[in-house]
Amino acid sequence: MTDLRVERSRGQHFDWVFAGIVTTLALMGLVNLVSAAASGVEGGSDIVSRQVTVLGLAALVIALVLVIDYRHYDRFAYVIYAGSVGLLLLTLAIAEETRGARAWLFSGRFQPSEFAKIGMVIALAHYLGRHPPSTIRRLRDLFLPGLIVAIPVGLIVAQKDLGVAVLTLLIGLTLLPLVNVPLRVWLAIGLVGLAGLAGLWQFGLKDYQQERILGFLDPSRDPLSSGYQQMQSRIAVGSGGLFGTGWQQGTQTQLRFLPTQHTDFAFSVLAEEWGFLGAALVLALYAAMLLWALMIARNSKDTFGAALAIGLVGTLLWPAAINVAMVLGLAPVIGVPLPLFSYGGSALLSAAIAIGLLLNISMRRYVF
C-alpha cells in the first residue's frame, strides 16, 4: 500500500508544463515536415510516416527512462559511458563511409554519436555529484572530466564527423561555468585553444572542410557549391516576411531550392511559410523549454540531479542554437538538425532520452 501511494504521488508531480512544451514543438515540427515532404523531396512519400513512427518510439523511450529513478543512472554512470564509447569504437571499426564520414551503423539508420552525448553528460554529472563544483578550484581537478569529454570527441573526430565533434565538445563545456577555477586559467586555456584551432586548420581539416568554413564567411565565394545552401536558406527566410507565404506555399521549399529542407534546413521552411511570427513562436517555445529545464535543475534535491539537468539542457540548447545560426548564415553548415523539429531517427531518440531524464528529475523532486 505504501508503494502504491508513492507511485501515485509521483504521478501527481509529473511535469505537465514541460511535457506540453515538448509535445507542441514535436507536433509543429511534424506539420512543418509534411510541407517539406510535399515538395517531392527524395523519399518524401515515406518521410512523414517514418517520422510518425519515430515519434511514437520516442514517446516510448521517454516513458521507459521516466520509470527508472534517475539515481540509478548515477550508480551505473560509468557503465553507460563505457557502452557509448564502445559503440563509437565499433562504428569506427565497421561503419561504411557515408558523405565523407564513418559515423553510421545499419546502413545509415543509427548514429551512435547522438547517444554518446547522453552517456558523456551522465558520466560528468556522476563526477560532479561526488566532487561538488564549488570545491573544484584547480585545473588538475578537471583532468577526469576533461578525459570524459575528450574520449568521445576524439573518436567522433576520427570518424570524420567534425560538426558532431564540435557539438559534443560544446555540450561537455556546458557544465564548466559551475566550477570555481579562476578566470586567468580559462584565459590561458583559451589562448591554447586558439593555437590548437590554428593547427587544426593547417594540418587537420581537409580541403572541403576549409571550403565550407570559407563559404560561411563569404557565401558569394562559391554560390553554386559551398555557399549555395546558406544563400538559398537566407532567401527562404527573407521571403517569408512577417506573416509567411502560407503552408505549402513557399517557393523556395516547394520548388526544392532549399537543400536538405526536411533535416538541417527545416527551420528555413518554417520561416518561409509562417514568417517572422511563426519563427518567433517556435524560438519562444525553445526558450521556454530550456528555461523550464534550468528550473528543473535548480529544484533538484541532489547535486547529481542538478548537474545532469544542466548537462541535458546543453544537449538541447547547442544543436538548436547552431542549427538556427546555420540557417540564418551566422554559423557554418555542419549538419546539425534542429531538436524535435528536423526529420531523423537517432537525433530524435537522443533528444527523447534527454527529455525523459529531465522529466524524471522533475517528478522526483518531491519524493526523495
Note down, in words, how this protein is organized.
- This protein is mostly helical.
- The chain has one domain.
- The protein has 15 helices and no strands.
- The longest helix is centred in the last third of the chain and has 34 residues, at 266-299.
DSSP strand content: under 5%
Number of strands: 0
Low-pLDDT segments, ≥5 res: 1-7
Helix content: 55-70%
- Rg is 21 Å
Distance between the termini: 18 Å
What is the domain total for the residues? 1
Determine the number of helices (DSSP H or I, runs of at least 4 residues): 15
Which structural class do you get from the secondary structure elements? mainly alpha
The average pLDDT value, as a whole number, equals 82
Q: Write down the secondary-structure element order.
A: HHHHHHHHHHHHHHH
Shape: globular
Sheet having the most strands? none
What labels would you give this structure?
368 residues; mainly alpha; 69% helix; 0% strand; globular
In short:
With 368 residues, this protein is mostly helical. It has helices at residues 2-12, 16-37, 44-67, 70-75, 77-94, 112-130, 143-158, 162-173, 183-204, 207-217, 228-239, 251-254, 266-299, 303-327, 346-363. Helix 2 packs antiparallel against helix 3.
SSE diagram, text form:
Blueprint lengths: L1 H11 L3 H22 L6 H24 L2 H6 L1 H18 L17 H19 L12 H16 L3 H12 L9 H22 L2 H11 L10 H12 L11 H4 L11 H34 L3 H25 L18 H18 L5
Helix pairs in contact: 2-3, 2-13, 3-15, 5-6, 5-7, 6-7, 6-8, 6-14, 6-15, 7-8, 8-14, 11-13, 13-14, 13-15, 14-15
